[in-house]
Write a structure and sequence with these properties.
Chain lengths: ~80, ~140, ~140, ~80
């Protein structure tokens, strides 16, 4: 399946790009699997969204999803 | 409900007044407002400028969800919420939450709740430029409850 | 501190903006405002007009005392408080409490506290004129805590 | 001693005037004594001020004081 992955704030800077377009096998079933597939162990306080809705590392991912990873938010 | 993102400076009181022109104020006896501005200090250091990164699309959805959930919890309220994105100078407004209601308790409680949820759920990230030219990401918001 | 009585209609947002022109806003990251207006209903009855009686001299002293005590409890704040007296029409502003602080919790808590104390300690009394032409004194304020 | 007494809101209307200038003997020592001297038993929830500061029925009064009586306040 094909997934668009976006990165924000210091994660984007640390990774060195703002997005990945990835094609993954059935072994990647969750948001956490996707991060581990791309970057190894997830950092503390990693936040995620699937299709622009807050998600957890155990949230399932599906073909065509837009997944985002970011640090804790600091607006307001 | 009205939710807005600004990529330039805006005057919160003009927004509030313009919204009130379209409200039947005889029914809204109470208005609670919070306006947050960029300070020129944070964690004991001088801050010269701020950049507010956001997640286009999700940010608007989150702001709308937060306000819709408040309007569902306090059915008597109506809200105006605005947030700044991009490059910000000291003293410019970062966030505005205005809530009108028939009674003061609902207006006040909903205003606080929307602000706290914006700070903890809406995808914005602050990067500060310090006096020595270095930059840093703000790691977390100060607790408000 | 600024405490004012108005015997004519006033725009709360103009007062807030004018006060901000004289504040070093870089230091005041948070502003909490409450504006209370005359509603056209109370206790299930239509209210056509309101007269706000007050105790000249003591009213100003009480307002100043309440704000001074808040500024003593939250030393970082600065306040603008205004209250209407005399004949009031529906939708006109009765009370404005605006509090600026470096941080949102102090601004919000002080704004609530000043409003509640104004309602329970400052010598104002509301007389309502109802749709049938009769008049009644409002007996007590709704609880806000 | 001589005391200026003011009335507000429905008390003013019920009493039919907005002030009294009274000269009282030493038997009137408190705000409550003053009300009883002028009007008999005090109504429930009677509020008072001496020299424009909130007072109670047992607050002492002195020559030249400005005493005010009023119902619970309803501003804001």
């Amino acid at each position: 399946m094909t997934i668009t992955v976006q990165y924000f704030a210091n994660l984007r800077e640390d990774i060195g790009r703002d997005r990945d377009e990835v094609t993954v096998t059935g072994e990647v079933q969750t948001v956490g699997d996707l991060w581990r597939h791309l970057h190894g162990a997830p950092p503390a306080r990693l936040m995620a969204a699937v299709n622009q809705t807050h998600a957890r590392l155990d949230t399932p991912v599906a073909d065509g999803d837009e997944v985002a990873f970011f640090p804790p938010v600091t607006g307001g | 409900m009205a939710v807005r993102l600004f990529n330039h400076a805006f005057d919160p009181w003009t927004l509030v007044r313009e919204r009130e022109r379209r409200l039947p104020l005889e029914g809204f006896g109470a208005c609670a407002v919070f306006a947050g501005r960029m300070r020129d200090f944070n964690e004991d250091q001088d801050v010269r400028a701020l950049f507010l990164e956001h997640y286009p699309g999700m940010t608007e959805r989150e702001m709308e969800r937060i306000v819709a959930e408040a309007e569902s919890r306090w059915p008597s309220i109506t809200c105006e919420v605005a947030h700044r994105v991009g490059a910000v100078e000291p003293a410019e407004t970062l966030v505005l939450v205005a809530v009108w209601s028939a009674h003061r308790v609902a207006a006040r409680d909903a205003c606080s709740e929307i602000l706290e949820r914006l700070k903890h759920e809406a995808p914005f990230w602050k990067r500060e430029r310090l006096a020595d030219g270095s930059q840093r990401w703000v790691e977390k918001n100060t607790p408000g409850h």
